[in-house]
Amino acid sequence: MGPMVYGDSDDEVFLGNSITTKKNYSEEIAFEIDKEVRSIVENAYAECKQILNKNMDKLHYVAKGLLLYETLDSEQFMQAFNEELSLDENDVFAKKEESKVILDQEEDTQEESNEEEKANLRKSKLEEFKLPEDDNE
Question: Composition bias, kind Basic and acidic residues: at what positions (predicted)?
Answer without folding.
Answer: 116-137
